[in-house]
Amino acid sequence: MSVPQAFLEPVVATAIAFVVGLCIGSFLNVVIHRLPKMLERGWHAQCAELRGETPAPEPPYNLVVPRSACPACGAQITALQNIPVVSWLALGGKCASCKAPISARYPIIEIVGGLLAAYAIWHFGPTLRGLAACVLLWSLTALTMIDIDTQLLPDDLTLPLLWAGLIVNLAGLFAPLRDAVIGAVAGYLSLWTIYWLFKLIRGKEGMGHGDFKLLGALGAWLGWQVLPVIVLLSSVVGAVIGITLIVFKGRDNQAPLAFGPYLAIAGAIALFFGGPLAKLILP
């Protein structure tokens, strides 16, 4: 058996996907942490310009520079200390320099990135469809965590994700292009309509604009037929998690709750099982 054929073996391909997913998960940690800060810096600069002021010069800050460092002591993280999961375990979950605790969230996101990629390749095979599914799942992971942290779904992620869905469906990877276009429009307009009806009736906003764009992106990836499944699943997941937080965490039921994570979880489920579920809802 040749080497390329060996790599196409399901078990081998799944294992490779898991390792690659761990590395992508490490990068997702950077995106989740830095992208909101990059956007905030941009907003401050734009506000200064609108006031006729010259923004104060700041050191470069993006997804590449500066190098990752311990937030407690500022010590730069070396390449060996940045190996997904392994480094966190080897360091005992503490900074090598100051011994400040490192959140378990970082290796958890890395593991999630690996598991999602592994299952996508196992489910769809080592194909273009499997690779595209990995990109969608990694994007949903980043959006979920950013929304939890900031209650923002950045256009820098949702809009490219929408266009990517239309592009992959030029080849009909997940849905015919016609269904993808209708899905993008219907996904956006459905939540947009609910938003304005709620605002007119209650006089306040019930969700963020990013939710419209995320559902539109999921419609572009999976087609309009899956949208009822996503909306239903996201509502169920949101209700379960919301009630759990209120009962066990004492969360204020009047406090805003990010809806993006529920859409993302529902979209991930629909990616794998949307067809059968849609047939149950839309026979």
What does this structure look like?
The mean pLDDT is 88. 68% of the residues lie in helices and 0% in strands. The protein is globular, with a radius of gyration of 21 Å. It has helices at residues 3-7, 10-50, 86-90, 105-124, 128-150, 155-168, 177-202, 209-222, 227-249, 260-281.
Summarize the structure.
By secondary structure, the protein is an all-alpha fold. The protein is built from 10 helices and no strands.
Overall average residue pLDDT = 88
In angstroms, what is the radius of gyration?
21 Å
Oligomer: single chain
Structural class: mainly alpha
Largest sheet: none
Overall form: globular
User: Count of DSSP E strands?
Assistant: 0
Report the helical percentage. Answer: 55-70%
The low-confidence parts are none
Question: How many H/I helices?
Answer: 10
Percent strand equals: under 5%
Descriptors for this entry?
single chain, 283 residues, mainly alpha, 10 helices, 68% helix, 0% strand, globular
Question: Which helices and strands, and how do they pair?
Answer:
Elements: H1 3-7, H2 10-50, H3 86-90, H4 105-124, H5 128-150, H6 155-168, H7 177-202, H8 209-222, H9 227-249, H10 260-281
